[in-house]
Design brief:
- By secondary structure, the protein is an alpha/beta fold.
- The protein is built from nine helices and seven strands.
- Helices cover 50% and strands 15% of the residues.
- The strands form two sheets. Strands 2-5-1-6-7 form a five-stranded parallel beta sheet, with helices on both faces.
- A hairpin with a 5-residue loop joins strand 3 and strand 4.
Length: 214
């Protein structure tokens, strides 16, 4: 018997981490034990590519007054860097998905509640490469195959004005409007339920639990 996987996805500032923890606590009350996982992206094989990109000014990082940083990638300016980064990021994602999701669910029968998942990585990759249809490409389809067939995925989404009001780094993120647009696009293409991120944490949690019980 395989374990279960529930993923909460969406742009920064919608409260994914809060909702995953609320979800774990609520499920625990009903006797269901779920473990927390953070699964946006991990860099290992892709680290040298990121270094080369920065050397050739295809990446930049801006430090805000509070000390936090916002990073931007312009890999779309180089087809070679864009291709190599996409492949290396897939390999990184494959490794960490196997370790943190596939093996625990398949062989250890663990139930997991994930803060971000493959779709979040794809949105970041679309912005980094400038390829907004990457999910239709060979590499995009490889990413999508990493999602277990029994995964329950919910997207929390809010408009950019709401997101900017919640976090300082989001306030100064010049890509936030594009991110919201791409998340909407992903939800339509892959039929992912959208939960209104403007609502209170309690209302969002209630909606997630309702969808889970359907």
């Amino acid at each position: 018997m395989k374990g279960k996987l529930i993923c909460i996805i969406g742009p920064d500032g919608v409260g994914k981490s809060t909702q995953v923890n609320l979800l774990i606590n609520n499920l625990k009350k009903s006797g269901k034990i779920f473990e927390y996982r953070w699964l946006r992206f991990h860099h290992l094989i892709s680290i040298p590519i990121l270094g080369i990109a920065r050397l050739f000014k295809l990446s930049e990082f801006k430090t805000l007054k509070d000390g936090s940083q916002i990073g931007y990638h312009y890999f779309g300016r180089s087809k070679l860097i864009s291709f190599i980064y996409s492949i290396s990021l897939f390999l990184d994602t494959l490794i960490f998905t196997l370790i943190k999701v596939t093996i625990p669910i398949t062989f250890l029968n663990k139930n997991l509640a994930c803060d971000r998942f493959i779709y979040d990585t794809l949105v970041d990759l679309m912005i980094s490469t400038g390829n907004y249809d990457i999910y239709n490409s060979m590499i995009g389809k490889l990413f999508l195959r990493l999602i277990p067939s029994n995964a329950k995925i919910f997207m929390i989404l809010a408009d950019e004005k709401t997101l900017k009001s919640r976090r300082n780094d989001v306030m100064y993120d010049k890509n936030i409007t594009l991110k919201v647009h791409l998340y909407k696009k992903i939800s339509e293409i892959f039929k992912i339920s959208i939960i209104n991120g403007k609502n209170s944490s309690e209302k969002i949690n209630f909606e997630i639990m309702r969808l889970l019980n359907e």
